[in-house]
Amino acid sequence: MILTGPSLFIRNIRKVNNHLIKFLSKSTRKPYNNPTSSILKVVTGGFVILGVYKSLYFTKAFAAQGKSENEAKIVKLTSREKRFIRFASVEYDGQLYMTPQDFLESVVEADPRPRLKRKTLSGNDIDRLKDITPPLNQGSPHLFRSLRDKGIISFTEYLFLLSVLTKPQSGFRIAFNMFDTDGNQRVDKNEFLVMEKIFSHAWKGKRGITSEAEPLESTPLQEQYINDEQGLQRRHIVNTTLLIHFFGPKGNNDLNFDNFRRFMTHLQTEVLELEFSEFSKGLPTISEVDFAKILLRYTYLDTDEYDMYLDRLMDRIKEAQGITFEEFYVFCQFLNNLEDFTIAMRMYTLADHPISKDEFHRAVKICTGTNLSSHLVHTVFALFDVDGDGLLSYREFIAIMKDRLHRGFKTYAKNEGWQAFKNCLKQEMKSQ
């Protein structure tokens, strides 16, 4: 048997120790000989061997550790990939898909519904999607809720839909123009599928499979298909619910900007309605505290800090009026314009000047073209005015609103292990 690593290291140390014991035992039989010099040689030799083997062993250990860390870094899944895998409840031909209901739950719930296993779809199930999926002119803010589990959404479409949720109205045109590669103000199915090329190309580049400089336009879509281990990347030609809805059962319809904008508006409205109804329980309003919980639910505040915000709000709201869905919707549209708001407020932040209610109200009007109600502004200030002087603590407000806008994705990706466990526990306590 060949010994390596720690076994070889221990065996050689034992040899040195045995030689030292033998030498000392011989020395005790010759009391008049001074063994100091020889002992020092053996001991010194032992420490040299010890040092060499420690160096070799730990160098190899750290090298192996570094290698494993690099390998883990290469295959490490992003927070969005992990979330898609957790919520995707169906698969077809080795590729995972979300249903419309899965998607809605993934953006408003912390965990997916309990299930024994994923449902495996057949070719007939895929063919039936053409009859189930409504055409684009029948789209509504209830599209995903009406389809429930009668549809499929790929991972790249999931990323597209997530980006829709955070787009301001002004960004709809930019998004459309990115798909409209020939500039004719209409997007066909092949242009829309460029998104598949982009994500598969990025996946390959991240793993060193292809050059980042390789032109996407010259590569057919079929050659971009990837048989990855997770089942996230497109690996076959399937007409998903989104493709059928946009381009028809035969895939020969075009998508114009008005229909594209309407779809994005409907999706944003549907998700916000679902989130609002979670707290309203069928009533026309939610409480100011529930509104605060929605804003704070994606943050990683300590439990004491979280309670401090809610206590501060309850102390300052003397007469609860409630927040209507219209007020909630307008505020969330403002959050989609948060970058513009940040620019508008830059002169205040450079001067480290807190923001008054009038200044806040005016900045929101400039960025979104809509007015926030006085009661909503009062509620926001009651939540984020730290010292009660009627001025907004801007930096803290922006940081928390960014977490809300991105629904925690940017923060989740930063923490793992013990920190992730603590954050998960905090999130669970907030939901109670």
Automatic annotation (TrEMBL):
Name any Gene Ontology BP term. calcium import into the mitochondrion
Task: State the compartments where it is located.
Answer: Mitochondrion inner membrane; Mitochondrion intermembrane space
Main location (coarse class): mitochondrion
- One matching Pfam family is EF-hand_7
Q: Which SUPFAM superfamilies match?
A: EF-hand (SSF47473)
Q: Which residues form the EF-hand domain?
A: 167-202, 372-407
Asked if the Swiss-Prot or TrEMBL record annotates the protein with the keyword Metal-binding, the reply is: no
> How is this protein annotated for GO cellular component?
mitochondrial inner membrane; mitochondrial intermembrane space
**Annotated keywords:** Calcium, Membrane, Mitochondrion, Mitochondrion inner membrane, Repeat, Transit peptide
Put simply, this protein is called: EF-hand domain-containing protein
Q: Which organism is it from?
A: Hypothenemus hampei
